């Protein structure tokens, strides 16, 4: 039995993220203490096995940011998982209450959290023990009931030291990411915010705007919706209040990208409107579409492999219990590893279309195995 | 053995869509003749079993739109599957060459196809035998090699009669949709184009614009990309030339929606920029996000059910052959029907997270079965 990587971790805020961190730490045998202003959240998190509740606060310090605490407290790390608007206050309080611990958070925006913390901690101790963090995982759901110990498995976890962060505090947050099954990626707070404006906040708003235009559509038109629209709009189902706070906290980089995206949409519209005037508009439209196709190819896939290493093999499946089992048993028996599965969402179908995504080298073996077992395949 | 629903169908254009229609018809025992200007495409389609090549043209008519053909020709239906820019010409030719057949197409835009056909067929016979069609299925891939007999199974198939369309021609295209496994949805050409501008063309351009902004991102920033960005940008990988033609052919409704979406993006950006000026910007931002969440809930799910009837059950899966088989065998043995499966795409993970989507009524039974078999579940 290896030693747990932390003696004790305090998690402040038992929502989706905080509770998931706590569950992941418990998985590695770490002692976890939980705090939440909402007793309901706390009760749920404790009942899920995420840790032990703290009442009154474990340290002897003043919970509003006052004097020194009990230095024999074995807390190595405090993880703050509260809404963006409260981050600075709670982080500053944690630095005061736990004067021997590293403090991190799991908020989606890092420069604002640091600035708020600095403002609140200016008269207090130890900003050098604060290192921001942001696990790149989430859910359209929220609250501790949606929490999962495996939420961070295989995900990136941004670790965002500021110029005064102590190396041992940075190491502790790196270790937190690894203990939760993620891989740490170090960036400055500002660089992080630029990155997530592009890879998370821009697509969130784009998805929201497309989905918003569906609100006035005729019901009879929506029956024509296919998988493309579903994929584009899925994340628009996220919590509006949480996203209001996230976007507000990263206002500048997000606004810049939104203006750029809006200009590009207007430009495509103008290209379409003047299409009869000549070939220039069409060429510009084609150029926009080519640029998009190039951009999507830049995204890293599972295992860091490029998506083009994987190929889809479509299989027709009767829509009744046990057919997927039979399919995967046949595939497993052939020794082929499935990287992804897509099942068609279309309405009114008596049969399902399943796409098995496998490494392209294994396609011939898979096709042979499927044919051998009588599956209806075209690829 | 039931009678095939058509005596003979001629498919003109052996690309992804035309070849898939041909394969679907062959599945029902229909005699299919194939034409394509590209002998390579034709050879591939024939070798896939999609039908018999036509050289020279089956009818005795003039292939460029001239006089009457052999009326004993048993062709009931001609399906035109050529690029949008060529549709009008080829449909008009088909009406002239096959004077006893209904003629349809599988193009993505219907008013322009009708207008082009009318222009080309003005001196010729039988516009009343033309009824537009648009199966709501596709792929990021193109060409006959990507064709599948099951491409249309369970999909909507827009059937777009014009005011002069003959009822027997409409019935033939309805029958084509059903024979291909789809369900026909009748709309006027203009109404169809309004609908697909919203459910297909707008999300295509939005996806393209988001993906286009990834082209200049630092590689180190893209490592932070999660599933949300992947979903939003997937369809941006489609063929730029084909999409140039589709968007151009539906320019007016698409441009109108793109301007509206662009204005909404600018508006969110302005809300973010003036957030310090007061609560009005924030309230407006929150309102946009709520509108998006409302819009996405309007989309019909599989079997026409609302997505909220389905719930995800996340299961942690060792990343090796056979584990999915074991999982689905256990689920199948419990008699639970799986509506969808999502496998996480994150890089660098030694284990996979699988979300089983099931009807919410079956969640308890599924959880019990999974727990019984020792699966690592949180839900």
Automatic annotation (TrEMBL), chains A, B:
The chain positions of domain Prephenate/arogenate dehydrogenase read 7-302
Q: Does the keyword rRNA processing apply?
A: no
InterPro entries from the entry?
6-PGluconate_DH-like_C_sf, ACT-like_dom_sf, ACT_dom, NAD(P)-bd_dom_sf, PDH_C, PDH_N, Preph/Arog_dehydrog, Prephen_DH
| The protein's name | Prephenate dehydrogenase
Q: Which organism is it from?
A: Actinopolymorpha singaporensis
- Spell out the SUPFAM superfamilies in the cross-references: 6-phosphogluconate dehydrogenase C-terminal domain-like (SSF48179), ACT-like (SSF55021), NAD(P)-binding Rossmann-fold domains (SSF51735)
UniProt KW keywords: Amino-acid biosynthesis, Aromatic amino acid biosynthesis, NAD, Oxidoreductase, Tyrosine biosynthesis
> According to its UniProt record, which protein family does this protein belong to?
Belongs to the prephenate/arogenate dehydrogenase family.
Q: Give the record's pathway.
A: Amino-acid biosynthesis; L-tyrosine biosynthesis; (4-hydroxyphenyl)pyruvate from prephenate (NAD(+) route): step 1/1
Gene3D superfamilies per the record? 6-phosphogluconate dehydrogenase C-terminal like domain (1.10.3660.10), NAD(P)-binding Rossmann-like Domain (3.40.50.720)
Q: Which PANTHER family match?
A: PREPHENATE DEHYDROGENASE, PREPHENATE DEHYDROGENASE [NADP(+)]
Pfam families listed in its UniProt record: PDH_C, PDH_N
Q: Which reaction is recorded as catalysed by this protein?
A: prephenate + NAD(+) = 3-(4-hydroxyphenyl)pyruvate + CO2 + NADH
């Amino acid at each position: 039995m290896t030693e747990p990587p932390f003696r004790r971790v305090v998690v402040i805020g038992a929502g989706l993220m905080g509770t998931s961190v706590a569950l992941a730490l418990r998985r590695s045998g770490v002692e976890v203490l939980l705090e939440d202003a909402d007793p309901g959240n706390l009760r749920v998190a404790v009942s899920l096995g995420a840790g032990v509740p703290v009442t009154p606060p474990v340290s002897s310090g003043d919970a509003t940011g006052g004097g020194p605490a009990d230095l024999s407290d074995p807390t190595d790390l405090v993880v703050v998982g509260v809404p963006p608007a409260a981050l600075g206050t709670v982080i500053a309080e944690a630095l005061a209450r736990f004067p021997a611990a590293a403090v991190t958070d799991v908020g989606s925006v890092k420069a604002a959290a640091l600035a708020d913390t600095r403002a609140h901690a200016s008269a207090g101790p130890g900003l050098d023990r604060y290192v921001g963090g942001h696990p790149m995982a989430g859910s359209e759901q929220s609250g501790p009931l949606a929490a999962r110990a495996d939420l961070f498995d295989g995900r990136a976890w941004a670790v965002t030291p500021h110029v005064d962060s102590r190396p041992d505090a940075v190491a502790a947050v790196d270790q937190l990411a690894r203990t939760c099954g993620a891989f740490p990626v170090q960036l400055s707070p500002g660089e992080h915010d630029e990155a997530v404006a592009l890879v998370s906040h821009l697509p969130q708003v784009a998805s929201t705007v497309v989905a918003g235009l569906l609100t006035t559509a005729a019901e009879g038109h929506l029956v024509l919706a296919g998988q493309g629209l579903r994929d584009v709009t899925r994340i628009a189902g996220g919590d509006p209040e949480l996203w209001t706070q996230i976007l507000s906290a990263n206002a500048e980089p997000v606004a810049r990208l939104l203006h750029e995206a809006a200009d590009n949409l207007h430009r495509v519209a103008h290209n379409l409107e003047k299409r009869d005037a000549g070939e220039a508009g069409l060429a510009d439209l084609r150029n926009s579409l080519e640029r998009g196709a190039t951009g999507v190819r830049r995204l890293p896939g599972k295992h860091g492999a490029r998506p083009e290493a994987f190929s889809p093999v479509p299989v027709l499946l009767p829509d009744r219990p046990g057919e997927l089992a039979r399919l995967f048993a046949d595939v497993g028996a052939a020794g082929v590893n499935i990287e992804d599965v897509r099942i068609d969402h279309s309405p009114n179908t008596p049969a399902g279309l399943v796409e098995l995504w496998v490494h392209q080298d294994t396609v011939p073996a898979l096709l042979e195995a499927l044919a051998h077992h009588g599956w209806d395949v075209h690829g």
